[in-house]
Amino acid sequence: xxxxxxxxxxxxxxxxxxxxxxxxxxxxxxxxxxxxxxxxxxxxxxxxxxxxxxxxxxxxxxxxxxxxxxxxxxxxxxxxxxxxxxxxxxxxxxxxxxxxxxxxxxxxxxxxxx
Length: 114
Known about the structure:
Elements: E1 3-7, E2 10-13, E3 18-25, E4 34-39, E5 46-52, E6 57-60, E7 68-73, E8 78-83, E9 92-98, E10 103-104, E11 108-113
Parallel strand pairs: 2-11
Antiparallel strand pairs: 1-3, 3-8, 4-5, 4-9, 5-6, 7-8, 9-10, 9-11
């Protein structure tokens, strides 16, 4: 089993940037497809971005395309979500997900003020 711990969330003004980290322990992430999801208050959890290890292909929700970037550092066993040009509607708890083993982190709060 892999343990995922997200960090890097916080309060930022609209237009600002944050980098979220998802550190894994217990198993290497290098051969796992990794995703970021988010859940805003009163809403369902939604897909944000994914990174497919075999094809090195990334996918993004339309709402974040061009503003967010998912990438990983296998040496650090960590997946990142670089978020730029943040908007108030990006406010949510952000979760890391290892697709192939369906493992979730506990999330990190991102709050974007207008």
